[in-house]
Specification:
The longest helix has 30 residues, at about 50-80. Helix 1 packs across helix 3 (about 50-80), helix 2 (about 25-40) crosses helix 3 (about 50-80) and helix 3 crosses helix 5. The chain has two domains: about 5-70; about 80-150, Arc Repressor Mutant, subunit A (Orthogonal Bundle). About 80% of the residues lie in helices and about 0% in strands. The chain is mainly alpha-helical.
Amino acid sequence: MDVYKVYQKYNKDFIAFARSIAGNNQAFDLVQEAYVAALEREEIFNNMNEYQIKGWFFTTIKNRNIDNIRKQNKFKYIENIGLFEDTENFEENVHIRDLLKDLPEKNKKVLLLKYGMNLNSREIGEILGISPSTVRSQLSAGLKILRENL
């Protein structure tokens, strides 16, 4: 079965799924992005049956939503460094800010991206223009400093 037929047959299911994970405003866009991605890589579907293609669409829609959330969070990071202000305890917020303030800038950025935005070392490396292994070493060094100061 080809991609277009699967898309036509299950389009309502795809939109319902996208609404369930992203809301009404973004659902149609997520489904369209998945369909465009399918058209760009149509050759990968040659050996797939209808249900495998359907599964591919659901997975792609979910992953596009995660990508969109991460992009939004990256912009929030750039606009507002106070990512750890979400804890409920005011004293914890103050203590965390004090600890982070004393960290070297490179370690602080890596920690904020890792724990504030839940990014992996490859993604952090792309944002900061450093290798994933450098990210891991800076993360380790930053955590060591924090542990020593607790």
